[in-house]
Write a structure and sequence with these properties.
mainly alpha; two-stranded antiparallel sheet
């Protein structure tokens, strides 16, 4: 959608192409189109749940090791 593309600072066609490539790579349809717009498929919903977990784990690692929060000094 145009809103998602704007939030990612890319064009809508670029976002659509990236999603299409991802769907081809993982072998599932994440989004389905209807006359009312775009809907997340059942498989897509499961995939997005895992993707959110990966992103959250990355953020935690980044905070701990890149931003060095809650890190004990090595002596």
């Amino acid at each position: 959608s145009d809103l998602a593309a704007a939030k990612l600072f890319i064009s809508q066609p670029s976002l659509s192409e990236a999603v299409k490539e991802l769907e081809g790579e993982i072998g599932i349809r994440i989004f389905g189109r209807t006359n009312r717009g775009i809907l997340v498929t059942t498989e897509g919903n499961e995939f997005l749940g895992y993707a959110r977990q990966v992103v959250e784990q990355y953020r935690l690692m980044e905070q701990r090791y890149v931003e060095k929060t809650d890190r004990k000094s090595v002596v």
